[in-house]
Amino acid sequence: MISLTEARTFVLSHCQPNPSEDIPLTEALGCVTAVAIFADAPVPPFANSAMDGFAVRAADTVDAPVRLKVIGELPAGTAPTMEVGEGEAVRIMTGAPVPPGADAIVMIEKVELESDGDVVRITAPVEKGVHVRPAGQDLSPGQLVFPALTELGPGHLGVLASLGMTDLPAYPRPRVGVLSTGDELVDGPGVLEPGQIRDSNRHTLLALVRQLGLEAVDLGLVADDEKSISKAVERGVGECDLLVTSGGVSMGDLDHVKTVLDRLGGQSMRWMQIAIKPAHPLAFGVVAGKPVFGLPGNPVSAMVSFELFVFPAIRQIMGHEFPARAAVPAIADEPLPRARDGKVHYFRVQATHMSDGRFHVKPTGGQASNLLRTMALANALAVVPDGPGIAAGEPVDVLLLDYR
Ligand code: AMP
Ligand code: MG
């Protein structure tokens, strides 16, 4: 048996970031920047009003209340044609350029209009610069906007758009192929013959891939024979950047995935017995330059294995520096019992953030690796180290899978 760390280190050593590409902004959400981005222009591009109100000369308001002559109006999107002279003001909307001569904005709520709006009465003095957003306040030319290896969220994309960028060098998303193996597997609603079960792993794994914002390629169901598995794996690595198979990596006579990976993956292939439960066995190898994961067939094992190995591999390929999910501290509100067996156990739990500022967890039900429903009900995995388990009220680390 090897540790999770050793197994993951081995896998990640074979999963290097894809070469960077110019990725359109419209497709860059969740991608990681390959270079540092610098501003080539000021944002905002001109000094503009932060309020609806009047652009004035601050010096004119020192002896407020004062009356100023309204000489024009500036909606957002128009260029000023006037200059604000002594005793004058311009009606201005949020985002409109501050006209020459003016150096402060008085909010509409703080003025009184007279003579059908030709005169504005300013009731209190304003300081120079009030409610004026200077050019370059957000970004100035030459400024570092985001360093290399920044994950792009919605806000980042908005900033890049505000600089007029339409694409940027980033690490592309891998296409991920998913394949189920097993003579017992069928798909769809038909009547099950004796011994048959329905394939659930392909649906779960395809969805896990899609949840990461990646293209998932459904490579279908394959029988437990070496030839069919070989063919499917070869087709998969031809079409995809990374391949995930399930089933056929245990100790059974018909567990051919490991045999096939051994032959196609050569030196890079390793069949691992990892000191974790579920997801104990894992076959991994590089075929035609593409990482191929042989996940165990039990539905919960396949999902936990995806979380612990495929997820960090995908993130590393996408350029993330710290690809694995970090565990966070929590309190077990119910016991998480287990026996000593040399393995770390991952318990399916519901995590809730409580008013004491901490996460509290409860198991979602039975923990056998075939019980997929209790996995579906879980939003986190509690990491229970080797030993007698965790008593109610004790601390435990958790991996938050989709905390909501
Ligand atoms: P294996 O890893 O092939 O030995 O399979 C372990 C267990 O998982 C067996 O009970 C299989 O029937 C089941 N299993 C394998 N693949 C799938 C799948 N795609 N969907 C649901 N159950 C599966
Ligand atoms: Mg099988």
Describe the structure.
The protein is α/β, with parallel strands linked by helices and 404 residues long. It is built from seven helices and 28 strands. The strands form eight sheets. A six-stranded mixed β-sheet has the order 7-4-6-5-9-8, with no helix packed on it. A hairpin with a 4-residue loop joins strand 8 and strand 9. It is elongated and about 95 Å long. It starts with a helix and ends with a strand. The structure holds adenosine monophosphate and magnesium ion.
- Tally of helical segments: 7
Q: Determine the fraction of residues in helical runs and give it as a percent range.
A: 10-25%
Number of strands: 28
Estimate what percentage of residues fall within beta strands.
25-35%
By helix and strand content, what is the structural category? alpha/beta
Weakly predicted, low-confidence segments: none
Distance between the termini: 35 Å
| Unique ligands | adenosine monophosphate, magnesium ion
What does the overall shape look like?
elongated
Strand count, sense and closure of the main sheet? 6 strands, mixed
* Cα-atom radius of gyration: 31 Å
What's the pLDDT, averaged over the residues?
Answer: 97
Largest beta sheet: what is the strand line-up?
7-4-6-5-9-8
